[in-house]
Every structure is written in structure tokens, then in C-alpha cells.
Design goal:
mainly beta, Ferric Hydroxamate Uptake Protein, Chain A, domain 1, Maltoporin, Chain A, 3 domains, 7 helices
């Protein structure tokens, strides 16, 4: 009885001290403590997390649960009255998962002292009810990667499109929800990411590619959660610098690639974290920064300036006059300057309360290669984008088993594209954003008449002129979230949450007017009289959502059941009568969806687990499709109208999978999935009369996606030399259209839209990813990653007959890539390390053909080169040096992936 009483007192002490909270996605540790001899559960055994006040005491059956844990590595200190103490190290916790630690304790009568045991990261997860992958900071550090996108592309079920965009299980790139520290990081205008985060700031990156739980919404394909690092009780930091250039023999494809510049691509990185001086008992911080100056690898020559032009002699019609006033300098045409910053301040007034303030900022100034302007590079657009996420979270553990989180965030995203900035009345540059008025502003006088942008033929480069477009888009997003989690019994964990989100989108687009008749000086169009191309609007949609999730954990089964509710108000009008698209405009009203989710896993052996999941998923279309052309301009111009009454797109997903551990170090996971996709966005042509035609965005498209993923993992033990993973994905992704604008594009080219399912543009049938890491100790590391995939689809053309075959019935060449990282570390002083490393991207300098000519299916050549127009251009180029040959024009370096790049550098850790 005395022993039982002491155990109960110990339990009460643990219950008081174990209440502590963490921000971001959380996981938990659970298990059973038993007597080593009798195998019976032990009551009142303390399970403490070393270095914290967190912990739990076992119940009458010996069970314990420690929830509300941030992702990371922990050590457990386990002991009780009359039993030996045991320490379990290297206990890894991942978001949304339960880490199971069962322990047997020997009686104190057996004098064994304190026993230390190192836990191994589980190869299979009992509570995995749908496909999810977690990558922690140690795994990220060992990979030859520069960005989160590169990490994601190595995961099973994720493929890259021709432009590098990511797709999860055959879905569109806009069907992925990106979250940072629990708040949305999506631009509502186009559903692109608002911020880029340096990998040195990431604590954990998780990818949910299956039927994700009800707490996640507004996504059809997957969810990517990024948790940034947090300051600890000790100061630590890193300083990193590395530089390099592209080393390739492909001079026939990449102009100037043989000129090596050791500082072509420079990266500066740093982190600093720890307690805030004088406030170390309650406050901590973490800071990270990354600056990347990249000169690029695609070059042009400044043979022409924007003032040059091509014309025929007024006296001799067969004589051309071509101005060439450029300095003939080699100019980079895809340079970039990128800056990423994160900051996290943590305040813990008491053990039960935690307040986190997070700031994530990224800025990018860059240019994209424009092949037509290779010899007039000063006419290439400049692009500027920046994103900012501010979030504040209050998290409170009200008991040992229940905690809640209240989080608010304010996010801004800004993108601009233009050649020259706008000017005020004095001629000074204006930092314009779409929240401002155009009144009193002027176009730069350097804009040239439209005809100066012409070329001798469509088979050669332009000889001067400017590009007239100005594009400005800014979004403001305010989000408030409340979530509560309670382990109401050992078997049931209940989660409930509510979220409100308000977006404001400001948009300005116009083309500068400049010709030789009506606009002798560059002019900004007037939106009121609809002369010229201009589109201006501001819209403020509203969203609200709620969910209820029950995670039921039994010995023989894990069940995840959830229900989600979503509400949306576009706060705009639409035309209900499609034959009167500018009349009787009506409020779009609200859209409501309810989404059930279910996932089940159960063991078939002690090392084998089967799971099944099913769910309904809804996602709003990118908001630009709701608000395009909000003035409903005159139908005579054959416009495209947005549709504020669009319904959410819908996907029903089924998944079944098997996890099987084969040995202590090896396991595999095989998963089959099927997705039925409805109400996808498309453009519909509406003909009112023979001369009155317009296009309108509608919920029209459908698709179905099916496939299998297989992953094989070999983990590294203390005495091993290597670890490895292999992922294979087979999928068939089909739909009646490949994108929302496909019908519109077909209409302009005179082709009719397909009516039968066709492969989607990103349908990569077979994808193989591999990672292998060698390392004899912590002092050196060699990692090689490889990707191999079948070619993406394209639409073949019979050139002679000008006939397109069935959409996406051809396949581009196979894609292959390998990257390498080697590092060597040297330890000195106290806890200081210097690491030297080399990274090689595209190790074998493979020229992957991202884009191809429709008549050959290759990027190398086109059958059109041998025809009359190109041949005539080749002949005239021999006579006039200012005109380049069609042969050179058809050699497009941007059709290929980046050549081999080598970088060397160092990291100093303290």
C-alpha cells in the first residue's frame, strides 16, 4: 500500500509539471510500462522528457501519453519507486504521428544501475492511415538540395512538370496547400506559394499525399507543412558560404557556357538561436537568413538596343536597313537575387502557456529568359516579388491531456512585371503597387512604337523595340484559427477547429500605348473608355471552415474519422444569363461544402500493417478565374469573363496500402490510389450570334487518376556505412482538358476541344527516385540522389498537312538527373565544427528536353527548319549580319534543363 501511495503522489507531481506547449504541427509519445518479470502494467511510473518539465505518469494499466510535442528528437527518463531507472535516447517525434515507446522495468532488487537505450526511428508506423512523409532537419542536411521544392521532388507520388512545377499524384500544381507554422502560405490570386524558406530554417517538412485529415482543407492533391526551427536554452548558430558555376560541354546548346566564373552563383547563409539575454528563463529566439546572387546560365548579346529597328530602304525595296547600336556585350538573361529571412520569438510565462511570434519574409528580383530578345536583351521584362507572413500563436495546455491553440496571421504577397517603372509628374520613378491609383502617373519615354519590335521573319530574333506590358498583383490575407486537442481516453484523441480567412486582392494590368499615329508618346490606357488593354480590380472574398477529427488508437486497429465544413463568399457579381453576359448582374452568393474523411490501419503481423482511406475533398478555383475582366467589357472584343459563381472543384480519393518491415534496417511501403476529379475549371465558348462570341470560366472539366507508389527504405545503424531509399511511382493521369485555359487556346488556333480523356500535361507514367548516403562517422558524408522518369506528354503535329494528332498522344524523351553532396567536418574548441563541402547538380550533365517541337517530339530540331521560310531567313542572314539565321533561332537553350553546376563552400557551426 505504501508503495502504491508513493506512486500516486509521484503521478500528481508529474501531472502538475508536465504541462508545457509547443508551436506548429505536433505529435505525441505514448506507450506502456510493464514489470520485466510479471509483464504486468505498472501504475505511477514517471516518464519525463529530459531538459523540459514535460512528462506523464502511467495509469492503472501502465499506459502513458505525452502529447503536444513539436517535431524533434527527445530523451525519455523513466523510473518509479522500487524500479530501476531507464533512459531512452534518440526518440523522434513527427507531426500528426504517435511515437510508440514501450518499456520493461526491472525491480530495484536487481542492481543494474541506470540503463541507457537508444531508440530507432520506426520503419513502419502503426497509426499511418494515409500516405504521409516527414523529413527532419538531419535528413535535409544530408541531401544535395537548395530548396524545399527539390526535397519534395524526391518523394514518392510527386512529379515535376515541364516548367519545374510540382504535382502530387497527378493533380494540378494549384491543388497543393502549403502551410508554414500552421498558417496558409498560398497566394489567393493563383494559388502559388507566397514565400520561399531556406532549408537551414526548417525543423520538419511533412507531405501528406493521401487522404489527409479533416483539419486540412482547400486542397485536392496534397498538403505540405513546414515547421521552422525554434531557439533553445543554449546559444547556437551557423555561418555558410558557397559559390560555383556551370561546367558543361554542351556549347552547341548553351551559348557562353564554356566561360567559367567561380563566383557566378554565390550563397550566404546564417542562423542564430538561443535564449534572449536577461530574459533567458522565459524568452528564446531563432533567426535565419539566406541570400543568393545567381548570374544564371542563359545568355544573350547586346547587339541591338531598344531604339534599333529593321526597315526597308525607301528607294530600294530589296535593301534592308538594320540598326545595330548595341555594345555587343554578353548579357545574362536569367539572373536572380533572392533573399529569405525567418524569425521566431518564443515566450513561456509559465509551463502551461507558450506564445510564438513568427515572421517569414522572402524577396526575389529576377528575369526569365526570352528567346526572341537574345540580341536585344535590354527589352526583357524585369520581375519583382516578395512575400511576408506574420503569425502570432497562443497555446495553452489546460490539463495533462488537453491543449488549445489560438493563432492569428497577416500575410502579404506582391508581384510586379514590367520593362520600365512608372514615373510621376517630375519624371521620378514610382514604386507602384496595385493598391495605388494610376492617376498622375506616366509611362517611361523609352517605350518604343510597336513596329520596332518586329523581326525580319518569324524565324529569327527581334532587332529592337520594347515589350509593353505592366502587371501588378498584391494580396493581403488575414487568418484566425482556433484548434483544441484532447486525449479524452487512452483510445480517443479528439481535435476540433475553426478558421476564418479574409483576402483582399488588388490587380492592375495594362499595355503601354505607343505607335506612330495616335500615341506619339508612351501612354497609359484609360480604363473608363476601354481603349487599349487594361484591367483593374480589387476584390475581398471571405472564407470560414470548421472540422471535427477523432483519432481512435486500439491494439488491433487505428481509426481516423473526420468531418469538415467549408463556407465561401466571393463577394462579387456574375451574369446568370449566359446569352446576356453584361446584363442583370447578380450576387454570386455563398458556397458550402461538407467533406467526410476516413482512414483505417490495422496490423496483419507484428511487422506488417495495412491501411485504407477514403475522403471527399473540395478546393476553390484560383481567385483570378473568378474576377478576370470584372468590368464585363463589350462583347465585340471576344473577351474572356471571370465567373464569381464558380463552384469548388471536387475530388473523391481512395487509397489502400501495406507497410512491411523485413529486417531491423529495411522496410517497404506499397500504396495504390484512385482519384475521381469533377468540376474542374475550364473555359467555355459561348456563341450568341455569328459575330458575337465570348469565353467564360465554368466548372466543366473532369479527370481520373490512378496509380501505385512503392518505397524501399534501408536505414543506417551505428556500425553501418550507408543508408538508402528508393521510390517508384506508376500513375495514369487523364482528363478532358489539361488546364483551365486549354479550350481558349484551342479556339484561337482553330482546333476543337477534345471530348475524350487525354493524358494530362504532367502525366509521368513511371518515376523512380533514389537516395543513397555513405558515412563512416559524423565527420564525413557522401550523398547521391537520382531521378529517372518517362517523358511527359506532348501533342504531335503532322507538319506537311498542318494537322494535330490527338492531344498529348506523344511522349517527350526520358528524364534523368543525378545530384551529389560530399562534406567533411572538423571539430575544434567546444562544440564548434567547420564543414567543407561540394555540391554537384546534374552530375552527368544531362540535357533533358523539357520542351519539344510538335513535329518531331524533340528539342534538338524541327522539320520546319528545312522549309521555305526558315531557308529564306538563312540566306538573308548571310547578307545582313544584323539578321540571325533560322538555324540559330531554332536552337532554344530554354528547352533544356540546366546544365551541370558545381558549388564549393563551408559551414561553421557553433
Amino acid at each position: 500500500m505504501k508503495k502504491l501511495f508513493q506512486s500516486l503522489i509521484c503521478s500528481l507531481i508529474i501531472l502538475f509539471f508536465n504541462i508545457q506547449v509547443y508551436a506548429g504541427g505536433t505529435g505525441k509519445i505514448a506507450g506502456k510500462i510493464t514489470d520485466a518479470e510479471s509483464k504486468e502494467g505498472l501504475i505511477g511510473i514517471s516518464v519525463l522528457i529530459e531538459g523540459t518539465t514535460m512528462g506523464a505518469a502511467t495509469n492503472l494499466d501502465g499506459d502513458y501519453v505525452i502529447n503536444n510535442l513539436e517535431p524533434g528528437v527527445y530523451s525519455l527518463n523513466i523510473g518509479g519507486v522500487g524500479y530501476q531507472k531507464k533512459i531512452i535516447t534518440n526518440v523522434r517525434v513527427s507531426s500528426d504521428f504517435t511515437t510508440r515507446i514501450d518499456v520493461q522495468l526491472a525491480s530495484e532488487a536487481i542492481n543494474l544501475g541506470t540503463i541507457v537505450v537508444e531508440a530507432q526511428k520506426p520503419l513502419i508506423r502503426k497509426d499511418l492511415t494515409s500516405s504521409q512523409t516527414s523529413i527532419d532537419e538531419s535528413q535535409i542536411r544530408a541531401l544535395p538540395v537548395e530548396s524545399i521544392s527539390q526535397i519534395l521532388s524526391l518523394q514518392a507520388g510527386i512529379t515535376k512538370g515541364s516548367s519545374g512545377e510540382l504535382h502530387i499524384r497527378g493533380g494540378r500544381s494549384t491543388e497543393i496547400a502549403y502551410n508554414v507554422n500552421g498558417v496558409s502560405a498560398i497566394n489567393p490570386y493563383d494559388f502559388g506559394r507566397t514565400v520561399q524558406i531556406s532549408t537551414n530554417a526548417v525543423q520538419e517538412l511533412s507531405v501528406v499525399s493521401g487522404t489527409f485529415n479533416a483539419e486540412y482543407g482547400n486542397a485536392l492533391s496534397g498538403v505540405v507543412n513546414t515547421i521552422t526551427k525554434e531557439g533553445g536554452s543554449k546559444f547556437n548558430g551557423t555561418l555558410t558560404y558557397y559559390t560555383g558555376d556551370y561546367l558543361s560541354k554542351a556549347k552547341d546548346k548553351f551559348f557562353n557556357i564554356d566561360k567559367v566564373d567561380p563566383i557566378n552563383n554565390q550563397v550566404f547563409e546564417g542562423t542564430l538561436g538561443g535564449p534572449i539575454p536577461l530574459l533567458e528563463d522565459n524568452f528564446s529566439f531563432f533567426l535565419s537568413g539566406r541570400y543568393n546572387h545567381d548570374k544564371g546560365y542563359l545568355y544573350g548579346i547586346r547587339q541591338h538596343t531598344v531604339y534599333d529597328s529593321l526597315s526597308r530602304d525607301s528607294q530600294l525595296a530589296d535593301v534592308l536597313r538594320i540598326a545595330q547600336t548595341g555594345d555587343n556585350k554578353i548579357v545574362s538573361m536569367n539572373p536572380s537575387d533572392d533573399l529569405n529571412l525567418t524569425a521566431k520569438i518564443t515566450y513561456k510565462p509559465i509551463a502551461a502557456i507558450k506564445i510564438n511570434y513568427d515572421v517569414v519574409f522572402s524577396n526575389s528580383d529576377y528575369q526569365s529568359y526570352a528567346h526572341d530578345y537574345k540580341y536585344n536583351p535590354d527589352a526583357n521584362y524585369q520581375r519583382f516579388q516578395w512575400g511576408l507572413i506574420n503569425s502570432l500563436e497562443y497555446r495553452h495546455a489546460v490539463s495533462n491531456t488537453t491543449f488549445f491553440s489560438l493563432k492569428g496571421s497577416y500575410n502579404v504577397y506582391d508581384f510586379k512585371r514590367y520593362l520600365y517603372p512608372l514615373l510621376d509628374a517630375s519624371g521620378s520613378e514610382v514604386s507602384f503597387n496595385p493598391s495605388m491609383s494610376l492617376d498622375g502617373l506616366h509611362a517611361d519615354p523609352r517605350y518604343q512604337p510597336e513596329d520596332k519590335g518586329n523581326s525580319y521573319s518569324s524565324y529569327t530574333f527581334v532587332s529592337g523595340g520594347t515589350q509593353p506590358e505592366h502587371f501588378y498583383q498584391r494580396s493581403y490575407s488575414t487568418e484566425i484559427k482556433f484548434d483544441i486537442t484532447s486525449q479524452i481516453t487512452n483510445q480517443h484523441e479528439i481535435k476540433f477547429g475553426l478558421k476564418s480567412k479574409w483576402d483582399t486582392m488588388d490587380f492592375v494590368f495594362f499595355e503601354v500605348l505607343r505607335d506612330r499615329n495616335n500615341y506619339l508618346t508612351p501612354t497609359i490606357p484609360d480604363a473608363t473608355n476601354q481603349k487599349g488593354s487594361i484591367d483593374i480590380y480589387s476584390r475581398s472574398p471571405k472564407q470560414f471552415s470548421g472540422y471535427l477529427q477523432d483519432k481512435m488508437e486500439f491494439d488491433s486497429m487505428i481509426l481516423n474519422a473526420g468531418l469538415r465544413f467549408d463556407y465561401f463568399n466571393a463577394n462579387a457579381v456574375y451574369a446568370p444569363d449566359q446569352f446576356k453576359p453584361t446584363e442583370n448582374l447578380t450576387d454570386a452568393g455563398k458556397k458550402i461544402t461538407v467533406s467526410p474523411r476516413l482512414g483505417i490501419s490495422f496490423p496483419i503481423t507484428d511487422k506488417g500493417i495495412i491501411h485504407f482511406s477514403y475522403g471527399h475533398f473540395y478546393q476553390l478555383p484560383p481567385f483570378r478565374y473568378l474576377y478576370t475582366n470584372p468590368e464585363f467589357e463589350d462583347i465585340a472584343a471576344q473577351p474572356v469573363y471571370g465567373n464569381a459563381n464558380l463552384k469548388p472543384e471536387r475530388t473523391v480519393t481512395y487509397e489502400v496500402g501495406l507497410q512491411q518491415q523485413m529486417t531491423e534496417t529495411m522496410a517497404f511501403n506499397i500504396t495504390g490510389f484512385y482519384k475521381d476529379v469533377r468540376d474542374l475549371l475550364a473555359v467555355q465558348q459561348i456563341r450568341i450570334s455569328s459575330n458575337s462570341i465570348y469565353q467564360k470560366y465554368v466548372n466543366k472539366d473532369y479527370g481520373n487518376i490512378k496509380g501505385i507508389t512503392f518505397s524501399l527504405t534501408k536505414r543506417k545503424l551505428a556500425d553501418d556505412l550507408f543508408s538508402a531509399s528508393l521510390d517508384y511511382t506508376f500513375q495514369v493521369a487523364e482528363g478532358n482538358e489539361t488546364g483551365a485555359d486549354a479550350f481558349f487556346i484551342d479556339l484561337q488556333s482553330g482546333r476543337q476541344s477534345e471530348k475524350v480523356p487525354v493524358p494530362l500535361d504532367w502525366d509521368q507514367s513511371h518515376t523512380l527516385n533514389g537516395v543513397i548516403t555513405f558515412g563512416g562517422s559524423k565527420s564525413w558524408n557522401l550523398t547521391l540522389t537520382g531521378s529517372l522518369g518517362t517523358g511527359l506528354p506532348y501533342s504531335p503535329q503532322l507538319y506537311e498537312q498542318q494537322i494535330y494528332l490527338r492531344t498529348n498522344s506523344g511522349r517527350k524523351p526520358v528524364y534523368a538527373n543525378a545530384d551529389l553532396l560530399f562534406d567533411k567536418s572538423f571539430s575544434f574548441f567546444d562544440n564548434s565544427t567547420l564543414t567543407l563541402f561540394v555540391k554537384i547538380f546534374n552530375l552527368f550533365d544531362t540535357q533533358n528536353e523539357r520542351f519539344v517541337y510538335d513535329d518531331t517530339g524533340r528539342a534538338i530540331y524541327s522539320l520546319e527548319e528545312s522549309k521555305g521560310g526558315p531557308q529564306a531567313t538563312n540566306k538573308i542572314s548571310e547578307k545582313y549580319p544584323g539578321i540571325k539565321s533560322a538555324t540559330e533561332y531554332f536552337n532554344r537553350p530554354n528547352y533544356y534543363s540546366a546544365p551541370r553546376e558545381v558549388r564549393v563552400g563551408f559551414t561553421f557551426e557553433f
